What does this fold into?
Amino acid sequence: MKCRIYTIREGGTKVHQKINYLSYVIMVLGLLIILFGIFTSIEMATIDDYYEPSGFSGEDEEIRFEWTQFYYSFIQSLEAGIIMIGIGFIGLILNQGNRLRHKQTEELTKLSLPVSKQESVYKVEETWELKEDDERKIDELYQDKAILEIHPTLEEGYVVVTLKDFDNEGNSYQSVVYISSQKAEEIKQPALVEKYTKQLNNVG
It folds into this structure.
């Protein structure tokens, strides 16, 4: 599968290069048409007149330049050249746009990992290590309860503790504890409790 993907990308790059070369060739042809039109128009507008001067024998040559003929001939070449250059330029712009879209699609494909993989990577990068002294603080805080689990949150200093009462056969529950002070403190603010418990459940 990897070989096929590589072949498709390489083939797409070659296609873009060929289109670029073709566009440049068309633009160069348009420029050559304009230059050729200048020379041919000058030649067509240059007229040689022969006349016999009074009092002298023989003929003299007079060169006249017909600007009307020059403009008429050159405008045709100029229009054809501009059209060719425009076609080549449009081809370059369209090809560049397709190339950028193709590149963005490849980048999005690389970044589109499954949600579970993204969460696991995020968890590995953001989690921190719980020390023995931190566990001791939590044990002292909940001496009258059974501590089932202790999970560090993504924010250092806050942990989610799963508890169960000794004298109650009901379900376990979670509490958020701040352990970066001298003594562990249970967080009472509902917004913070909801934030860290949801954060842990989403990552876990």
